[in-house]
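[READ THE FOLD]
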Amino acid sequence: MEKIKQSLTLLLIIFFMFFSSFAQGHKNYIVHVSKTHKPPIYGTHHQWYISILTSLPPPHDTKKLLYTYQHSFHGFVAHLTETQALILPNIPGILKVAQERTGYLHTTRTPDFLGLTELSGLWTNSNYGEEVIIGVLDTGVWPESESFNDDGLSPVPEKWKGECMSGPDFPVSSCNKKLIGAKFFVKAYEAKYGAINDSVQSRSPRDTDGHGTHTASIAAGSVVKNAGYYDLVRGEARGIATKARVAVYKICWAEDCAEGDILAALEQAVDDGVDIISISIGRGSGLEYDDDAFAIGALRAVQKGILVTCSAGNDGLKTKKTPEHVAPWILTVGASSIDRDFRADVILGDGTMYRGVSLYSGEPLGPSYYPLVYAGNHGHRLCAGNSLSKAVKGKIVLCDGGINSNSQKARVVKEAGGVGMILANNLYTGPGGPADEHVLPATMVDPTAGNTIRNYIKSQPSGNATIIFKGMVIGGNPTIPAPLVAQFSSRGPNRVTPEILKPDLIAPGVNILASWTGASIPPLKFNISSGTSMACPHVSGIAALLRKAYPEWSPAAIKSALMTTAYNADNTGKTIRDFTTLNESTPFDRGSGHVDPNKALDPGLVYDLGVNDYIGFLCSIGYTESRISVMVHDQNINCSTVGLASPGDLNYPSFSVVFKPATNKVTQRRVVKNVGKSENVVYDVKVSSPPSINIDINPSRLVFSPEKQILSYEVTFTALGDQTKDALPEFGWIEWSDGFHRVRSPVAFTWGKGSVASI
């Protein structure tokens, strides 16, 4: 009788699942499998995956295998119902099933600002990155851009195994010796949103957005004479690694960037033979590493010797979101300003002048003054929607910042008949801050100036003003302080693993001129954009130069060289400041500092890491061997032999110390390798710590010899006070020097729980 009841119960469950599955919507799922579990009756893993999907309950007509993976991880992406996905983990060999997430875009004077020169340094020592291949995962490419001309380049590197995927508007001839490969990935996106509308976006590698063309040309664009953005900027434009080759993988479409497509592109880039992967796409912060498909794919790329660089995100100080892409095997890049400004100053009727910034390129207002009004007195203070009355016609309108975009505010003013706009931003704007393009004469001023102008309008009902457009200013008088940490750049701490300091460093990401899509209206050959998206490819290009200079270096060694040689003082000699507050920035803002390409060419010492080290790191934060097996394949995993005492013991080029409750002492270990010209060299250590922390290093001197090129040291951090978990973070640094090289690591101190893996 009991058996009959159990059988009836099972039949009811199957009956329910059968019919409920028809009512469910379909979604994309990432399925991780154990490579070794493939039954011998199947010739390939692809055949096995098809069999697995066939065995699932109906509906059958909508089950769809989108991608299979071998490099980024072992497994596949399929379009399934929730019921079908829930059954998969019960099938032998299935390690994990996760619903697909989506990504989103993180939106040249910089070679000069970075100190790159044709006379000496990293450019000449790397032959401008000749034959290094940078894979760019983004919105595609506009191949006709002059930045991708291949004049003077040698043949396509023999190691390249990729192709140029054609489309109706993208013939194979679009690729050349510079743009050596181009592919698009759309299966996961179309499974989610339906077929691409060719009249709206191009179902090919062609970029109709601009973001991908911009980032690719920053990393490795060829030299273009007389490049410019209207008449604001005019001169020579060039990427960082001008002789490196570009392979483009289009993964982002009108709505978003589907996780399955991102993984497929990453898999393809590894298989094609790229040396550097550059990705300026956000996927959200706070994801566990084994729940972050991109972190998994990036680890597999690092296994193949490929450095992966990612943008840190654009959440800045406005939210509590922390940097994205915080896995220690990823080089995470924040954004900084440069010493260039696009000046557009406000002059009030009483003669006072307030500095502003603008990318407006049309007809200026001229010498005449116009009546000045406040939007809040004639509609909505934010200049939102159609809120302004016709009373603003013929006048300059002061709009408050926030909510709607700055460019939208200008359009609202123009539609209401205004002749100009002053935007009173709610954040500090400059000099050197992000500027916006506008449809009428407009400028943006900082909050202090905005308050003063607002008070002027209140006290002078018939007050007037004008806007004087001064165009591009380099250096400035007084000096434009640079770099500053961009206000939008995401800050630490690292919420996933507090013992790993993120971002790793900062690079130029404000008002960057680079190539653009010809599909823009009006068509633009070059455009100016800001974001950590722009900072990331700067570092990707520099990493390509280092790869060429030191082909035997591991991804971690290149990353270490970039981090330990980064600088922390601006062009006025002061500690790099935060753009929003003008206070000194901290390592949570700038990481190890601002990238310095020429110093990275000769770092002296490097902190090296391999895949086993990252496995040990994962063991130390509580990941089980089964969880790690989702992330690493073709390798035995035994936490008892590779595990670290703590995640802080990972041989990382920076330090993040977490004092847990009832603990006032933390010890971390590091290993450094001498890569300088002399084998016989002595390094001595210096430290800087807050009064509440003592730093003790043993040994305090490292003596290298031909027999001992790799040495270790131990650091003990002791909290001297009675700080609690609510104590504010504090910071210091550790620096090794032989009198010529300065190998510097920032240190962050926090009080809290530290890393706890999710169960």
User: Anything to note?
Assistant: Residues 1-23 have pLDDT under 50 and may be disordered. The CA atoms of residues 621 and 756 lie 6 Å apart. The two ends are 39 Å apart (CA to CA).
